Amino acid sequence: MDDLLRSKDMISGKRKIYGFIAAALLILLTVQPSLAEELEASDQASRPSLGGPDAVVNLMESDRADKDVLFESEYLKPYFDWKTGIKEKYGLAFGSDYTGVYLTANDNLPGTDDYASGGMVRFFGVWALPGRGTETCGALSFKVDHRHGYSDTAPAGFSLDSLGDVGSIASTFNDEGWRLTNLHWRQSWNKDRLVVLAGFLSPPDFVDTYGLGSPWLHFMALAFTTGAGTISLPGDSAMGLAIGGWLNENLYIMAGFEDANSDPTDPFEGFNTFFEDHEYFKHIEIGWTTSKDRAYLDNLHLTMWHVDEREEAGVDDGWGGVLSFTHYIGDKWMPFIRAGYAKDGASLLERSVSTGVAYQPNPIGATAGNLLGFGANWGKPNEAVFGSGLDDQYAFELFYRLQVTKELAITPDIQFLMNPALNPDEDNIWVFGLRARLAL
Q: Which fold has domain 2-95+119-157+176-393?
């Protein structure tokens, strides 16, 4: 009888979430184009959109932005001029980058490495096809990467496996090899007032994003990126659908669902898992911002999510929410506070609060160029994953991104971990990191 009741509750909960998402989609689809004010004319492929710093259109915009640099260099100007010509003639905007990360700690668990290092090369772009340069535009967005370790321990597992801290540092830097991050169709109407994404998606690009949420550009610790460590996200290249739009000049809403069993190293297996397993990650977000072009800079939003039970993986269903606030002050300071909660699922943390501030000494582009960041986090490990009785954790991170040239940034990073939950013999651990990124 108890099993039957739990089953009925689960079905009821799923119906509520599906109904919530359906209602959100209905609201977005009924937004009338006549309500939109005219935006300044610009190329569709480069116009800022709903999504975070790592969404392809926003990433390329950030890489192209003017920056306060240590050394001016014109050696690559012919290459960038050639790319501009390709974009103007064919509507294809593309880029690439290579990022390397090195981490070391003053203490570690017995039998584990006290350092980790790895790298990643990425190729990404947007190919605007029908309606280029008009209010209604379709575009193919893509991102492919190769992730590799320099050491036996990859950075993504260093914190959990070597330090006993329930978290992840440089969580995207693993040794999975070639992967498809995303390959999807992006359709917009009325100058991006309504945007639909369909295909292979990367949920961290548009779920609970904020201006300092990129592990390539900002903080390294997962506690300061998507969900503050409390969202049970699927992997990259998750087949699904996401939709976002503006209800007025300041209020937006986003919703979607993706395959919870995605595998970026074998993305086309997603056709089978999506249509046969019916195990999905669902999310909805409502947010407010001062203006559309500052959607992830001046931002207050609430993100709710639910993930189905994954039978083959042996992971229970779960749900949770994240409340996030950021405000860009004087184009120099960006304080933030973010709080997350998870009930079951496979997230690292069950409860988490992150706060901090970033400072841009000589602002030219939004959070582009030299950047100083500091964050503090309190986190409670997820009992559904790690069991009960573990201590709460505290983490602090300080980084400074030095923009050497417009293409090259070097970021030294220091983290202080208190009460690592899976390492009761240590009260605190220092972690020192270095990240370098070359964007072309």
A: Porin (2.40.160)
